[in-house]
Design goal:
The complex is a heterodimer. By secondary structure, chain A is of the alpha+beta class. Chain A starts with a strand and ends in a 5-residue tail after the last helix. In chain A, β7 (about 120-125) and β8 form a beta hairpin. Chain A has a single domain, classed as Alpha-Beta Complex (Aldehyde Oxidoreductase, domain 3). Chain A has 4 helices and 8 strands. In chain A, about 35% of the residues lie in helices and about 35% in strands. By secondary structure, chain B is an alpha+beta fold. Chain B has a single domain (about 1-75), classed as Ubiquitin-like (UB roll) (Roll), CATH 3.10.20. Chain B has helices at about 5-15, 25-35, 40-45, and strands at about 1-5, 15-20, 50-55, 60, 70-75. Chain B is globular and about 30 Å long. Classes of the chains: A alpha+beta, B alpha+beta. Chains A and B meet through α2, α3 and β7 of A and loops of B.
Chain lengths: ~150, ~80
């Protein structure tokens, strides 16, 4: 398992290739990448991501460990950025390896659902007209009940 | 103990962390103590349903005990991913 919290951009292709090449016993690799969206229709200048150093790594490691306990998985990778990002920038990625695709897909969805509401990150949108914190959505909290 | 604030909680209180000497037994008691201090705390803690708390970097409830706790953090619901 690898959990990375960093300010710098990451290379999605290089990360996915290295992850996929690490274990030839895995028949399925699923990757998901989150990208900064311009919800304010061309107005978003910066997405500022704040996190809780220490708790962030602890929470992500716990979520990844739980995924490995629930599904038949090989390795798990989580990379999440913080700091100032621009529209189009990649915020985070998860990758799961499994002998079969169902485990890889489900584990990736589980990681994403928990990462949204249980990893201590907060997003602030800075636009031409001001700045505001992105509110948590009820549907993100509700998504946890299916697991 | 160390008390940490994140996102708009940090902005309303005006500092990211501070040292607090308290006899509070629970998180809820600590919140009441802080609210009584100054209007900026009252502004941050006005609606507890909009807040989450972590004790020593684990999520907890507002009725949780502070016994042995070194670090308390208050923040809005998380928005990762």
């Amino acid at each position: 398992m690898r959990v990375v919290v960093q300010k710098e951009p990451f290379d999605l292709g290089a990360e996915a290739n290295a992850f996929a090449a690490a274990d030839t016993g895995m028949g399925a690799i699923v990757t998901f990448t989150g990208v900064v969206r311009d919800l304010a229709q061309g107005d978003l200048d910066v997405m500022e991501i704040e996190h809780y150093p220490g708790m962030t790594e602890k929470a992500l490691t716990r979520i990844a460990t739980e995924a490995q306990e629930r599904w038949s998985l090989g390795d798990v990778l989580v990379i999440h950025r913080y700091g100032r990002l621009a529209p189009g920038d990649r915020i985070m990625m998860v990758a799961t390896a499994a002998p079969h695709r169902k485990d890889a897909f489900e584990a990736a969805e589980y990681l994403m659902d928990y990462l949204k509401s249980r990893a201590p990150f907060w997003k602030k949108e800075i636009t031409g007209t001001g700045a505001g914190w992105v509110a948590a959505k009820d549907e993100d909290e509700d998504a946890l009940t299916r697991w | 103990m160390d008390v940490l604030y994140f996102a708009w909680v940090r902005e309303r209180i005006g500092v990211p962390r501070e040292r607090v000497e308290t006899g509070a037994q629970t998180v809820a008691q600590l919140v009441e103590e802080l609210r009584a201090r100054e209007p900026r705390y009252e502004a941050a803690f006005a609606d507890l349903t909009a807040l989450r708390v972590a004790l020593d970097q684990d999520l907890a409830d507002f009725d949780a005990s502070l016994s042995g706790v070194r670090e308390v953090a208050f923040f809005p619901p998380m928005t990762g991913g």
